[in-house]
Amino acid sequence: MPLPHDYSGQSCSLARALEIVGERWTLLIVRDAFYGVRRFDDFAAHLGIPRAVLSERLKSLTTAGVLVRVGTDGARHEYELTPKGVALWPALRALTDWGDDHYAPTGPRRILLHAEDGAPLERDGRCSGCGARVEPADVVIAPGPGLVPTSGSPDRVTAALAIPHRALEPISPRDPGTPA
Amino acid sequence: MPLPHDYSGQSCSLARALEIVGERWTLLIVRDAFYGVRRFDDFAAHLGIPRAVLSERLKSLTTAGVLVRVGTDGARHEYELTPKGVALWPALRALTDWGDDHYAPTGPRRILLHAEDGAPLERDGRCSGCGARVEPADVVIAPGPGLVPTSGSPDRVTAALAIPHRALEPISPRDPGTPA
DNA sequence: GACCAGGGTTCATTCACCGAACTTGCTGGG
DNA sequence: CCCAGCAAGTTCGGTGAATGAACCCTGGTC
């Protein structure tokens, strides 16, 4: 976790950003939020993060205004990205692209498509089909060639991510099943 | 420091990327390398990082192929970004832009210009003047409106960054002075 | 051959992370 | 009404990493 503490001496916005999202697990949590994960246990199961750490990260991200806690009914609440959180999308993409380039020998593990026309997105966030600049909400996340099939019975989140679905949309809203 | 350990279960290139550059201080070191910092003591002084941690990070970044150690003469060597390290530029920019947007009330602390024509860069890496896609080596880093003047006598690096200079070019190669 | 700077390493302390177990609040069933 | 079950955390002991100060080694200078 880069710099949760003061880094006031540094005149750099990167340091500021890392104070918020540079801690261990934090960017993975934000990425999962883009993927549609919203509930505590789903984050925990999908990331394999210790629950205490997850609790702390969700708290600090909420305090920072990256996430909001939405009370669904009583104790069942969900975490959603705020516009400030959604603004992290380009950073997330850039880092993921770098990872794909250098650590995904069999191709990207996930690919991003424009929801309108199904064409893949370019690196600069434009649609390779229509050329439009695509907002995060109009992105469809689909499995890529580099995705290894999960062995055994995957968790809710992994299962949901095995089929294309729109970013920021909650995965399997309440219970699994949803028969077509 | 997100995930220096195994994260093999995760089918995500972001996790892979964070295993390399997600640890505390690592991205700041890479950023400084873009700014032209190359020597151990300059990194240490500019970042305020414990020397033991810096030593370890430089080692792991070198092992990962993000930096190379260039022997200048005997014990005096320098660290340079490899192409793989330079490929982190978009990610660094995206994160810095997010920090500027949300944590720089008086404007960006540094601005990026196209070396060819001096016009500022767009978010997508293009030159606002000529429209060309600008390589990191053709970027000039200049102080922005949000940069607070350093109080007291700054270190070599802070002083060098107070005037515009080209990315990846070493700061004050050997000794200060360099009279025009 | 004494001094100095660069480039680290060593070490004790503190802090954060880990994983498992425990608690609390709500829901559904008998 | 009482108990089981689940979601959402909190608590806790053990471990590993970060911190910062001090020390060391090497090469060059005077």
In a nutshell, what does this entry contain?
The structure is a homodimer of 180-residue chains. Chain A is of the alpha+beta class and 180 residues long.
The general outline of chain A is: globular
> Would you count the extended β strands of chain A for me?
5
Radius of gyration of chain A: 17 Å
Give the class of chain A from helix and strand content and strand pairing: alpha+beta
The biggest sheet of chain A, with number of strands, parallel, antiparallel or mixed sense and barrel status, is: 3 strands, antiparallel
Q: Percent of residues of chain A in beta strands? A: 5-15%
Task: Give me the number of helical elements of chain A.
Answer: 7
Share of residues in helices of chain A: 25-40%
Written overview of the protein:
The structure is a homodimer of 180-residue chains. With 180 residues, the first copy, chain A, is α+β, with helices and mostly antiparallel strands. Helix content of chain A is 37%, strand content 14%. Chain A is built from seven helices and five strands; from the N terminus they run ααααββααββαβ. Chain A has helices spanning 13-21, 26-35, 40-47, 51-64, 83-86, 89-103, 156-161, and strands spanning 67-73, 76-81, 110-114, 139-143, 165-166. In chain A, strands 3-4-5 form a three-stranded antiparallel β-sheet, with no helix packed on it. A two-stranded antiparallel sheet of chain A has the order 1-2. In chain A, a hairpin with a 2-residue loop joins strand 1 (67-73) and strand 2. The longest helix of chain A has 15 residues, at 89-103. Chain A is globular, with a radius of gyration of 17 Å. The termini of chain A are far apart. At the A-B interface, helix 1, helix 2 and helix 6 of A face helix 1, helix 2 and helix 6 of B. The structure holds a DNA duplex (30 and 30 nucleotides).
